[in-house]
Design a protein that fits this description.
Elements (H helix, E strand, L loop, with lengths): L6 E2 L8 E2 L8 E2 L3 E2 L37 H5 L13 E3 L2 E7 L2 H12 L2 H7 L5 H12 L5 E8 L2 E10 L16 E7 L9 H16 L5 E4 L2 E2 L2 H9 L3 E8 L2 E9 L7
Helix pairs in contact: 2-4, 5-6
Length: about 270
């Protein structure tokens, strides 16, 4: 695997979801760094929450105000700063934890990662550190729908993550979103950390952290570009399932879900 970098997608006109199928062409989602997989059924044996699909364009890009009718949903969002309170997870690669980004401290490091050709191919944020700063500011100045984090392994920053409310994201216009769906975008920062299965380990770890700490979330969602074969494979190996192929504004994506009810089976 050469890269497991997935990125978020911008709001756009409607896109169609096709039946799950095989990947003949690699690809990833239009938004930088996305590794998320929705799950189903908060607890085995309970009825799944009804699926709701909002009309295309109903959800603005992260950092923009939500329409008044969606504010009650936003009031339930509890993402802001919460990853800082999640307990570290022991993995076969070391002790992993998420730490919310502090731009003054982290901007240059994340900008260096964004300028790696393998990352830039899917995130599209190469350039001076001001480009990265603007991307981070849009989330940090927002309303808590997306939290940018560093992933630290044994105390060393080595990955960048965005934990976001997929049901309050433009992505919700492109699939049957459920309340509290939580998405992930991710990039592995250093080339030496890629291609050795670390992405699979961390995707499973972060999905489990979300399900453990967000009890109302029934699934974790991700939308890697279909062209990004290593990313799609990492999600599948991490217990995500391919739910559909969807057309996003700038890519054809694999809609990957990790269901709470299936987390011990996959």
């Amino acid at each position: 695997m050469t890269s497991i970098n997935t990125a978020p997608a911008p709001a756009a006109a409607s896109a169609t979801a096709t039946t799950p199928g095989t990947f003949t062409t690699p690809g990833t989602f239009t938004t930088p760094g996305t590794f998320a997989t929705p799950g189903t059924c908060a607890t085995p044996g309970t009825a799944a929450a009804p699926e709701t699909a909002l009309p295309p364009g109903a959800l603005p890009a992260q950092g923009r105000p939500l329409p008044a009718e969606l504010l009650p949903r936003l009031a339930e969002a509890d993402l802001l700063d919460s990853p800082a309170d999640w307990r570290p997870a022991a993995t076969r690669a070391g002790l992993f934890r998420l730490e919310p980004v502090r731009p003054a401290r982290d901007r240059k490091l994340i900008a260096r990662w964004m300028n790696d050709p393998e990352v830039a191919a899917f995130w599209g944020l190469a350039g001076p550190s001001l480009v990265t700063a603007a991307h981070l500011s849009a989330q940090l100045a927002g309303d808590g729908r997306s939290i940018p984090c560093l992933g630290l392994l044994d105390g060393t920053p080595m990955s960048y993550w965005e934990i976001y409310r997929a049901d309050l994201d433009p992505l919700a216009a492109h699939y049957p979103a459920r309340p509290e769906d939580t998405g992930i975008h991710v990039l592995i920062g250093e080339a030496a950390d890629r291609g050795r299965g670390l992405g699979t380990v961390l995707l499973r770890t972060v999905a489990d952290m979300i399900l453990d700490n967000r009890p109302r979330c029934t699934r974790v969602v991700a939308e890697p570009d279909l062209r990004n074969t290593p990313s799609v494979a990492a999600f599948l190996n991490a217990g995500f399932r391919l739910a559909a192929e969807i057309d996003l504004p700038d890519k054809r994506a694999a809609l990957m879900l990790r269901d709470r009810a299936l987390r011990t089976l996959l």
